[in-house]
Design brief:
alpha/beta; Rossmann fold; seven-stranded parallel beta sheet; two-stranded parallel ribbon; binds nicotinamide-adenine-dinucleotide
Length: 273
């Protein structure tokens, strides 16, 4: 069966776990040719095995998206390997918890380097190849935390708001400049992945407690998230929200305006977040 994704060359960063893994498997199932990358080679090998298990093919590489020169070289390598690139899912991301007063500049830089600059590098590196393909799509993964802010997530909020601004401007440029590249920004709510377990925090915060309260809040499976993202890609959506929580929070923030901050601050205080 031919799908929207059949024979498209799709790149997925952070493919060794969670949403990136589920996207890779679902893209393979729909007939895409895959370039998958991650810093976690063990997780990436597992994803590659899953893709091969359903008869797909994947070029799997180590890539740290925060290393701009490496991302640029990787984009050329993928284009040379497949002869074209159609889709890039800038998905790799990390979490970090701490108040601004507790965080070092290094902590903030690290989050921005991966979650924001990783997306910028992935976008800029692949954009010429996507234009050359005549049929390109950039999918940048932000978060509901790119729609509203919460205490202890200032660095992550900053990166995810920045991804949203960057991506929404790019989409308009592609339209105005008649480039053959579609652009979608994705805002997942809580997705049951390893993001909190893989995450870091300032000293004195309990990693396991943070991870288990995330596990309680995250309702959507990564497989469902992948399906919602690919449906949004097929429909060329500007913005994709994932999960009932994302829909409710998006509406709540838009209706309450800046007043949301008082309510979320009180919620966080009461729940010891
Ligand atoms: N899980 C959620 O609830 C949620 C909600 C909103 C947004 N997101 C976003 O979704 C994306 C995927 O996260 P996930 O939930 O699947 O988390 P995850 O931790 O399960 O997977 C993230 C993957 O990115 C990889 N990675 C981390 N740093 C990297 C780097 N520098 N270079 C390359 N790869 C790197 C990790 O090794 C891991 O395999 C992230 O951008 C995250 O911010 C997740």
């Amino acid at each position: 069966m031919t799908t929207h994704f059949t024979d498209k060359v799709a790149v997925v960063t952070g493919a060794g776990s969670g949403i990136g893994r589920a996207l890779s498997v679902e893209l393979a199932r729909r007939g895409a040719k895959l370039a998958i990358c991650d810093v976690d080679m063990h997780g990436l090998a597992e994803t590659e095995a899953l893709v091969r298990g359903i008869g797909g093919d994947a070029k799997a590489d180590h890539l740290d998206v925060s290393q701009r020169e490496l991302v640029l070289a990787y984009a050329d390598d993928v284009a040379a390997h497949f002869g074209k690139v159609n889709m890039v899912f800038n998905n790799a991301g990390i979490a970090f918890t701490g108040n601004v007063e507790e965080m070092s500049f290094k902590d903030i830089d690290r989050v921005m380097d991966v979650d924001f600059w990783g997306v910028v590098s992935g976008t800029k590196a692949f954009l010429p190849h996507l234009v050359a393909s005549g049929d390109g799509h950039i999918v940048n993964i932000s978060s509901v935390f790119g729609l509203f802010a919460v205490p202890t997530q200032s660095a992550y909020n900053a990166a995810k708001f920045a991804v949203r601004g960057f991506t929404e401007a790019l989409r308009q440029e592609m339209v105005n400049n008649k480039r053959p590249v579609k652009v979608t920004c994705v805002h997942p709510g809580g997705i049951k992945t390893n993001i909190a377990r893989n995450g870091e925090q300032v000293e004195g915060r309990d990693h396991d407690k943070l991870a288990s309260s995330f596990d309680k809040m995250a309702r959507t499976s990564p497989e469902k998230a992948a399906q919602v993202i690919l449906k949004g890609v097929e429909k060329n959506k500007a913005r994709v929200l994932i999960g009932g929580d994302a829909w409710v929070l998006d509406k709540f923030v838009r209706v309450s305006g800046p007043g949301y901050q008082r309510i979320i601050a009180a919620f966080s205080r009461r729940n010891g977040l």
